[in-house]
Amino acid sequence: MSTERRIIVLGSTGSIGTATLEVIRHLANSGGPRYRVVGLAAGANAALLADQAAAFGVRHVAITDPAAAAALPSGLEAFRGPDAARELVERVAEPGDMVMGAIVGAAGIAPTLAAIERGCNVALANKETLVAAGAVVREAISRRRVELLPVDSEHSAVFQCMRSGRLGEVRRVILTASGGPFRTWSAERTRNATLAEALRHPTWQMGRKVTIDSASLMNKALEVIEAHWLFDLPSTAIDAIVHPQSVVHSFVEFRDGSTIAQLSPPSMKLPIQYALTWPERDEGCSPAIAWEAMRSLDFEPVDHARFPAIGLAHRVIDAGGSAGAAFNAANEVAVQAFIDGQIPFGDIASIAGEVLDGVALRPVRTLEDVLAADAEARAFAREAVAARHAAAS
Fold it and tell me: In terms of domains, do 140 and 37 share one?
């Protein structure tokens, strides 16, 4: 029987968080490593948070929305407000714990850094943490000597493929993108896509913000930047390709000409389980590929004219400093503006580019540097949104 491990799940009521808890239950029932959930953090879904706490015997929870916290049972010790997840980590986490970082957006940066400073290993599903604060996170990881394990399916795939060689032998990594719902649309139709159309992803079931990012390929752009920080690769060694079936999750091309790929059906449970059981593999709760039913695997280049986000990502990597924080903040503001009906879908990436052009880029050494760059970029992006909305009115 394996030793019980402690885990805190940040973003427990989202798609990654709920899948993580299902994986933990599966591992316990299948003889894999046993995880004891000691903390859960959510945004506003108090009902589901309370159900999760009851199901896993959790006493300590965090909820961002103070009004929603009123619905939590009295037996829970609850941290409330915008810093609740960070406070939960600082009060409950112990060195050697695992923290699943699945809070969406820049809100996940501070609690993830708090977990690293507490000496916790981090399974990272929040790509914005590395996009905005990569230099700060890498320094903390090195200093605290903890593990940072990728959970995004693409980065988990690269992580697995990298076991076939050494970093110095890698020529490039190629992340796959489903192409989203607008893969075959014209530029004009894509630009004016509705919110309902952007949320209709062909292969993945995800939260709203991530689904919109996938439709614009901004999600892939963020993943390109994240790969730079995870695997210490320059922008020239990171590429993306469209693969509609979402079966091949990434390729790693080595300098001898060999290319290693990781394949599995589109389910987040596999990369989650791999992060939780690494470096071992246990009986999975995700289906294997039904090869007898597989007829083709299709690939096509990214249309950078219709989807400029990936080109912007390479620009962010090359610029360094606060460019990542500015890019991520601009995208979050633009996505929310699209949801609110203030800008057309096609303006999301152009606003991110406008922010990169307009804000001063500075070195980033601390979380405060990241937050300052984030705030400046958000203000600039909101002005850009307001100007476009006014012009269209």
Answer: yes
Q: 362 lies in a domain?
A: no
User: What's the CATH number where 74 sits?
Assistant: 3.40.50.720
The DSSP element (H or E) to which 268 belongs, if any, is none
**CA 55/CA 58 separation, integer angstroms:** 8
CA 197, chain centre distance (Å): 22
State whether 162 and 220 are in the same domain.
yes
Nearest to 49 by CA among 35, 23, 70: 70
- Supply φ then ψ for residue 159, to 5 degrees: -55, -45
How many domains in the chain? 2
Residue type, 10: L
The answer to whether residues 131 and 59 belong to one domain is yes
Domain that holds residue 100: 5-151
CB atoms within 10 A of CB 264: 22
Quick: pLDDT tens for 342-383: 999 999 999 999 999 999 999 999 999 999 999 999 999 999
Percent with pLDDT over 70 in the chain: 99
